[in-house]
Design a protein that fits this description.
single chain, 133 residues, alpha+beta, 5 helices
Amino acid sequence: MDRELFAAAVRARRNAYIPYSHFAVGAAVRAADGRIFTGCNIENASYGLTVCAERNAIFAAVKEGVREFSALCVTADTPEPVSPCGACRQVMAEFRIPRIFLTNLAGKVRECGLEDLLPYSFNLESEVRNQNE
């Protein structure tokens, strides 16, 4: 478990904007160069416009020019480690994040790889492979 990444996710969770679900989520992603970027979930009355913590963290890094990542941690106040939604899993697949820590505030951790979360994911490599077949 990456303790620094977990602590950053817990801190980010405090900034969640959750007037509808009251379900705060925090995430932190580590760039290949070691920098950490964080995100929290931000809800909207038009639910489709809500953005998850994981995507906010990844997009914050991409905005700064990061394209390679080593790990991501997501946390929430849940009985078991929280799991990312499908949209977040697809964004993780796009950037090939190899280590993912699912956690809760009590410190339970489930470490998994991208293949565990989204087997047969669709990404740039699969698109290029499909075009060459």
